[in-house]
C-alpha cells in the first residue's frame, strides 16, 4: 500500500494538488518510503500544501538522507550551509552531507564541494581541490560548475590565468542559459579577454543575461545607457529602468541615488535619493556612504549636520574609499563646514589614506608640516620628505615645492641651491610655469649654477608662455640691474606688463618702477612719482617697498623728513622678513632714531638680518658685540635679547610671513571634486551557489 500512497502523492503533486499530495506522501513516508520522505522535505521547505517549516523540512530530508538518497543529502546540506529562521547554520554538517552526496556522483553537491574549498568554508582553502570537484561536477552536467571553472581560470586561482579556457567554460554554461555565465561573456567581449573586443556583442550578452535575471547584467546595461557607450545614445530614463532591475546591486542603488539627486531621467527627489543611498550603504557601498555624507554636509534633503557628515565619510573610508579619507583630512585642514580646524587630525586621516594605498595625498600631508600650526609643529625636513614622495609619484607641483624648500627654506640643513635647480628643472620640464620662473631666478642670481642672465631670460619667457605672467618682473629685474644687458626702457615695459597681469603679485614690479623714478633711469627723476609707486607697492604688501618708503622718510626724499615715520615703515619691512628692513630697523634702535635707543633690540634685528643673508649686518653685530666689556654685561645683554625676542615675536613672525611670501609666489593646486562619481568595478568575484 505504501507504494500506492507514494504513486498517488506523486500524481497529485504533478497536478499541484499539494494538500492531497502531502497527505499521501506522509502516509508513505511514515512507512519509511525514502522518496516520499524527500518530497515531504521539499514541500515543507517551500510551503506547498502546508505552512513553510524548514526545521520539519530538514527532519524529513535527514530521514531520506540516512537511507542514502543523494538529493535529500544535498538539500539537507543546503539548509545547514545557508541556515534559516529555524535551522542553525552549521558548515561542518553541511560539508558532511555535501560530501556524502558528492561521493555518490551528485553533480550539484560536487559543485558545492568546489565552492567549499574555493572559499575555505570550515576547511583549508585549496583552489586545486576546488577545481577537481568542479570538473567532476561539470562532467556530471552542472552548468554552475562550468561557470565556476571559468571563474578560476579567469582569476588565476589555483591555475595560471587563462582567458581562452575561461571563455570556453563560460560559453558552455551560457549556452545552457546560465545567466551569470552570460554576464561574464559580456565582460569578456567588453574587455577583449580571450576574444577580440566587441562592445556590440558585449551589449547583446548583457541583455540576454539581464532578461534571465542577472542583476549585474542589468547594472551593466544601465551604465551603457547612462554614459551613452558603445554606439548607444545616452538615455537616463533607460538607464534608470535597468538600474531598478538591479536593486540588489549596491552600485546600481548608488546610481539611482545620484539620478534622484540631480534629476537625471527622473524628477529631482532628495528623499528618494537618500533612501537609495541608504539601501546601498547597508551593503557597505563606500560611494553611497560618501554621498550620504555629502547630503548631510550640504543640507540636501536633510538638515545640515556636520557631525553626521563626518560619520558617513568615516564609514566610507572604512569601507575602502580612499577619497573619503582625503575628504575628512581636508575638512580638518581647512576648518570648513563648522569643523574645528586641526592639522593634527588632518595628518592622521592623510596617513590613513596613505596606509590604504593612496599616493595622491602626499602633497597635502607635506603642506601640513610646511605650514605648521593647529597641533602640528612646523617641520621643513618632514615636509621635504613628503613633497619628495609626491614628486616621485609624478606630481610636478610637488617637484617645484621640493625645489622651493631647497631654495628658500630657513632650515640650514635643507638649503641647497644645486638641489633646488635640479628639482625646479624637473617641474619645469613637466610644464609647471612657476618652476620655469624659479629656474630663471637661479640663473639670474647665479645660485646653484653659474650666473647666466641670457639663460634666465629664456626661462622667464618660457614661464610667461606657460601662463605665469609674474615672470615679466623677472625680465624687468634683469634689464634694470644687469651689468651688460641693462635696458631701462625695457625694464619699465616689463614692470608695466607685470602690473597689468599680476594683481596682488604686482608689488615687486610697482616697487621696481618706483626705484627707476628715484634713480632717474629710463624716466625723468621724480621722488614724488617714486613715492607714489612705493605706496602702491606697499598696498600690495611688498616688504621691499616698506623698506624703500622708510628710506624716503629717513632721507626726506619727496616727503618731509621723519625718523618716526621711517621707523614705522622699517618695522613693517622687518616684520615681513625683509633683510634690509631688518638691518635698517636695527640701526634705528641702535642710534635711537624715531624710537628709544635699545642696543639689545637692535642686536636682535642685526642678527636676524645677518641670518637672512645680509652681509652688511655683520659689521653692526660686531660693533654691538665690541661694546660688551664685562661678562655681566654680556649676560645682561643675552637676557635682554631674549626679552626683546619675546617682545617683538620676530622669530615666529618671520617664519609665518616667509610662508605667506612663498604662498604669494606659488599657490598650491588643490583639486576637489564636488561630485564624486562611483567607480565602475570590473566585477570578477561573482559566485553561484
From TrEMBL:
Name of one Pfam family that matches: Sel1
Spans traversing the lipid bilayer: none
Source domain of life: Eukaryota
Family to which this protein belongs: Belongs to the sel-1 family.
Alphabetized PANTHER family for the sequence: ERAD-ASSOCIATED E3 UBIQUITIN-PROTEIN LIGASE COMPONENT HRD3, SEL-1-LIKE PROTEIN
Name this polypeptide is given: Uncharacterized protein
Organism name: Thamnidium elegans
Source organism phylogeny: Eukaryota, Fungi, Fungi incertae sedis, Mucoromycota, Mucoromycotina
